[in-house]
Each structure stands twice: as C-alpha cells, then as structure tokens.
C-alpha cells in the first residue's frame, strides 16, 4: 500500500513474448477493476527481447523502472505485471517510479531464482539389492557436485537418472567405481540446457 494505492505484483516465467502477453491478458481479466496493469518483460537466452508498458501511467514512470529492475538483477525469461488499484492520492512521477520499481524488486527478493546450465544426462543401472545404498551415495554426491538426481525407475534393475555438469563426469565415474568396488559405471547421454536453483 502506497498512499492508499494498492500494488499487486506478479512475476511469471515465460520463454516467448506471446507467452508473456498471455500472462498479462490473464492478469487483466482477473483484476478487471484495477486502474493500471503496468508490465515489463525480458525474454531470450541473452535477454534479447525486452518490452515495457506504462498502461496509462505518466510516460516513463512504471514500465521502464520495472524493466530496469529486471535488467539490474540480470534475469531473463520473465514477465512482471504490477496491478495498481488507485487510492485517490496522486503519487507524482518520483513516487510512481519508486512504487513500481520497489514492487518488482521486493517480489524478486521473494522469488526462487534459477540459473541455466548445460548438464549431461546420465543413468546408473544398479541391482535392486544395492539400490538403497547407491541411491543414498548418488543423492549425497549430487548435493556436493552441482548435479541433480532427477529420479529412479525400477524394472529388472534400478535405474537412477541424473543431470551432471560436464566437468563432474570424471569425478562421478571415479566415485561410483569406488562406492561399488568397480562394478558400476555411469552411462552418459545427451547434453541439455536446464534450469537449476541459483
């Protein structure tokens, strides 16, 4: 609440401008009675597409300040929508800039931030008798090597699915051999770009 005006901020992950526009349209429909729905979006691996809208606020007092917060935080593939319910008190240009930029900044402080990394898909086949012990070893190994244990499938053998940073493939092979007296080795698959907690 800023001088009786209520600001509601939504940050939503998107990968295209069209997806961002769909989020904005949904917020407009949900908060149809609000005075303004100001927006900023950054999309693309290198933040190549950026847009903002003041949605009726004085030019440069909402969308651009919101976009500057996203740029300053070096985030991409996100849309920010700040919905304002006007409280009857004019905030002035400086007050609007502060209100909109603070709304996005404070919401980013609460949001879980992900980073993009190239990871390698790895599977480890384990006899069922060893699945519990090796599963624990892999869980601990992932936690200390920047890897992700995606899950396990149980058929004729237990198959653990991991995402491993390329530089950690050799340590994984060595540590797995050590944990299994040389009987287990990882099967290396494709590389893919994934979002991991920052």
From TrEMBL:
Position of the signal peptide: none
Domain annotation Impact N-terminal: ranges: 3-108
InterPro entries named among the record's database cross-references: EFG_III/V, Impact, Impact_N, Impact_N_sf, Ribosomal_Su5_D2-typ_SF, UPF0029_Impact_C, UPF0029_Impact_CS
The organism's place on the tree of life at top rank: Bacteria
Domain annotation UPF0029: ranges: 126-182
Family: Belongs to the IMPACT family.
Name of the protein: IMPACT family member YigZ
